[in-house]
Design goal:
- 4 copies of one chain form a homotetramer.
- Chain A has about 325 residues and is α/β, with parallel strands linked by helices.
- In chain A, about 30% of the residues lie in helices and about 20% in strands.
- In chain A, the strands form 2 sheets. A 7-stranded parallel β-sheet of chain A has the order 3-2-1-4-5-7-6, with helices on both faces.
- In chain A, a hairpin with a 6-residue loop joins strand 13 and strand 14.
- Chains in contact: A-B, A-C, A-D, B-C, B-D, C-D.
- At the A-B interface, strand 8, strand 9, strand 10, strand 11 and strand 13 of A face strand 8, strand 9, strand 10, strand 11 and strand 13 of B.
């Protein structure tokens, strides 16, 4: 097992989780900067003593799996190299999340390896467990689609979504290890900042997933940065196709997630602290008698279930391990 | 001028602003706790040296105005006493915000002084300047209605709102000087917490104001606490009654607020830091080509424009002063 | 195993760590409030499903150990009851930390069970491992003494401390689940607040421990609250009894802690994030050529190594388990 | 009046304060980046509409004063150019803070304009008011020396300091508009980070000022970053040359600062929130009966009194205005 691109937030946390995983052996962490330094010098808290190396395609024979944590477009060629050497890959980028090539290219530009798209499963474990188990590539979802699709899936399957507004809030770690105005504590602190207004890359990913559940809807998705480190709340406001009562809603969600080890249907609205540093998604659904709308609140840790611990959950599925292995 | 109830966050800030105001003379700050202590012992940063006294109705003859910062239902009797002694009042509570008594009583219980409702103007300065100038009571709006109604007024007047979702986020000062789970830094920090799901007292206040502008709509309003001190963002998602383009939207907002000293129509989405510790409301409107919805983002400081500095803005209007006096 | 007083921050975290511990069985969590509610309703993040019960001395026969998380003076009688029923106790209060009764009574008032003091070992695992292994009561150290004594022990043993100033900074969780001015985010946020100036209860605890190492010194100890949740830094400024060079210092600390699983001697000054949510203490020592002083920086998580995870470390020692069990 | 280097935190705040100053006319803000953009695009909160220009020495004839907010070594040549054109300068860099050239060069490298040092006054207003009034260059102090020297001056003058440890804590704005590990909210948040151990550039500045007051002492100075925006606390631990009692201490500080508009001698230990966004320094001194040491706590806003508002205070002195002008 290796993590390619371990110097960013997502890759570093994946390395941490895999390093202490009882069944996987992390043998290398690669990066394009800081080569030769132990990863724990960059991320002391994660205590991964492996030195950062450059990714050397010639030495990959013995690798059976990899987590790739590269930026969009940079990931696909590396995923291809890893596949060629026989490894299976969980890719944290957007490169294989969208089934429709033209959608990808509208948002991200030319796809470097379009022929590989067909070999990828969408890595929202709860919805695509079987495909993930057998896939060569698992495209780990974006953190916003993770929280949003888990919130909306029961309603989408039931044909209940006529219209939906998703207002998502996220901590600063969602911006990654970028050093700029959005992450400087003196600018991001004491601030609430909506961003990418009316134009968020995660919208097509959410819509494609809902469509696969039989729900054809244009999603109004909006994200805001708020001053914390890790945490994400997707607040979903659904105009239902017909009136929905509390009891029906309750059963819909209870049934959908009864068997899921990492989805908790809560009896009251959760705060994101309740899932901090865990792989849980915590959901609360309510019917608003005044407006007739259905509200769903979905709390995750954007770096964990939204990214790196979900990658481990997928690796567990890919290698036939109990899904909670190394994550409890 | 006095501030009654100066020991809470709102009253203390009002006292601070009035103490340094060039045209008003703050002569007393009253409270039910900490009597005898200088206000600046409780709020050192505000540097108001007046000692806290009990409100003594017998000594009010010389008072021409008061800010009342009492809890809901406790405020109305005191407002009545002050009126009787000849003072004009800006009331920070909800007691006189709603024109419809039955709406008030559904949310807050029996009204202690219903006969006074007719003497109150709604203190959203930008919308009710003339009524405020002559009113005996000015009912200072809630902070959520302030941000929301300023965001929606241009669309409401133009008959453009078919449906609307308002997702508002606020710093912890919005919970006031309450000491509990919602305000403890170790619980409120690193958290995003929606609250009062499908049941927020501010909804009827917003709906009543929109109705006065000719817009009859049920508002889906939802608030969340995020870990900062002062700051509020109302993100409004409007389904328009007909398609609205960027240009029309731009003109609608520019025209509506061109003459307003404290409303800024921004060219890009604002963060709440941009209005921190000011009386400004900063707005940004955008049309979403994908969904056809209209988005409006409204940033205020919940303690300033949302509460105490708007009270001063109203006092300026009530006493014929330039509206920006003591606030620039 | 039970946790008595599980509704506070320290008890709740202890319950969390013991609930997931591979070798201990947590059978009860007790509290004086919230009886009947699952602990995970109060602390959702900790996911301990046990319902809170009142401590019933009649039902303690089968209990072999307990963590007591009561306030000072309230703890000792309960510790006595538990001992009588045959359990061994890790006490998180100050009641058994001080060997000298008169010192205790000067700071905390009359001791409820002074005859038990002789049965207690001081629970700084690294210094008192043997005594802890056999003790009936283990007095878990205060978080400040934990960080400070680990920082100073190598110098104290070597007779190198002529004078010492300790400036400790701590996150708000150190104030516990108290709801007041010191913990309200709008007051504790954007603040740096020294407290208990020239009069800190932890001073005698530190001095007693240093004296046991042969170092008789009056410690200037000062604590400040800073706006984070969990984290503590003790910055120690030692005037040495003779000049000390970098090399000697390096060897002194390396030798002292080479075999310790939870003390890391760092090559550069640590931030508290490096030990967040861990049982580690991370130390860095430096000689200041300009002043001749020796500086030692000691970072811990005040709730973990400073309190609850150190309690688990002590329980591991008491029951002959590997010290890192349930803590890695 | 111009601000040269207005795109950094210090220059931008100076521009904000001068823009709204009743007696100064800010005519230009210069910068090496973002030329042509209104300053308020970079710092919306400060609402300075002037466009950023390049500093053009040819157009400086009409300028009577400038604030220079350049990095060390870059400042001196610009200060020289401004002097040549007839302007008086408040320089925020370290270039003219030290009287001893060799000390400067040891810490900062070759001095670009050493011949100008003699024309500079040290801009700690409270200590050097007369020199500032007549100086061509005022070297604004570092924020750490501001807090520290104000704390220690009464003791230094009285010959009471035998030894001193200064442990200073500061918010992240102290690192300026640098985008790196020390300022990223996900790294600086939930962290306490000592830095520049045993080697801080501000030590010689503090020692030189104390020496001018007759106190020859080597200062143990250590700074730590804590997760807030603006705020600085210098905690000073003085070993006195002879026993000092509370009463003497009280009088010493009361006498020293009785006439100072911006120094408050507090009756209890202050938090930095008490001086947030003000030009105040708030001091508290105490004698520790246990150790015999004298403790002084000094709270300032590092960006205000520590930098930009002190620059305005100095400009007021330089131009014969009341010292509090534009700062109350």
């Amino acid at each position: 097992m290796i993590v390619a691109g371990a110097t960013g937030f997502a890759g570093a946390l994946a390395a941490h989780l895999l390093w202490r995983h009882p069944d996987f052996e992390l043998v290398a962490v690669t990066g394009r900067s800081d080569v030769g330094r132990p990863l724990q010098e960059l991320y002391p808290r994660y205590r991964v003593p492996l030195a950062i190396t450059e990714l050397d395609p010639g030495s990959l024979e013995a690798i059976d799996a990899a987590v790739v944590a590269y930026p969009h477009a940079a990931a696909a060629p590396t995923v291809g190299t890893l596949l060629d050497s026989g490894a299976r890959v969980v890719d944290l980028s957007a490169d294989f999340r969208l089934g429709a090539l033209e959608t990808y290219e509208r948002w991200y530009g030319p796809h470097p390896r379009p022929e590989l798209i067909a070999r990828a499963a969408y890595g929202l474990t709860e919805l695509h467990r079987e495909a993930i188990a057998g896939a060569a590539i698992v495209a780990n979802p974006g953190c916003y689609p993770t929280a949003t699709v888990l919130a909306l899936a029961p309603l989408a399957r039931a044909g209940l979504i006529a219209d939906v507004v998703v207002d998502a809030k996220q901590g600063i770690s969602g911006a990654g290890r970028a050093f700029d105005e959005q992450t400087h504590l003196s600018m991001a602190g004491e601030n609430i900042l909506p961003y990418k207004v009316a134009s968020h890359r995660h919208t097509p990913e959410i819509e494609e997933q809902l469509a696969q559940l039989g729900c054809d809807v244009r999603v109004q998705f909006q994200a805001s940065l708020v001053p914390l480190d890790q945490g994400e709340m997707a607040s979903c406001y659904v105009t239902p196709t017909r009136p929905v009562g509390e009891q029906e809603l309750h059963e819909l969600f209870a049934d959908a997630y009864a068997a899921e080890p990492f989805v908790e249907v809560a009896g009251t609205v959760p705060g994101t602290r309740e899932v901090l540093a865990t792989n849980y998604c915590r959901l609360f659904a309510a019917a608003d008698g005044h407006t007739g709308k259905v509200l769903v609140f979905s709390a995750i840790d954007n770096l964990w279930k939204g990214t790196s611990s979900q990658a481990v959950q997928n690796l567990n599925v890919m290698f036939g391990l109990p899904e909670t292995r190394g994550l409890a």
